[in-house]
Amino acid sequence: MRFQILLLCFVAIVGYASAQRGCSNICPAVYQPVCARVGRTLRTFSNNCALSAYNCSNRPGAVFVRNGAC
């Protein structure tokens, strides 16, 4: 039983690590702000790429609200 729990934890950690590597955090340095909702708060991201990068590594992610700063 203990072995099965350890195996399950190992698989979960490996899956999480491989999912994180799929995220590209390289975005152009172009300021075209977008407003998104993170939980109950509004947050301004520098551009759509920054919003996508945030959503790739954070679950649940931010939800696009509108173009422009919040």
TrEMBL record:
Signal peptide (from-to): 1-19
SUPFAM superfamilies (UniProt xref): Kazal-type serine protease inhibitors
Highest taxon of the lineage: Eukaryota
The UniProt record lists the keyword Signal: yes
Ranges of residues in domain Kazal-like: 17-70
Keywords: Signal
Coiled-coil ranges from the UniProt annotation: none
UniProt-recorded name of the protein: Kazal-like domain-containing protein
Organism: Hermetia illucens (Black soldier fly)
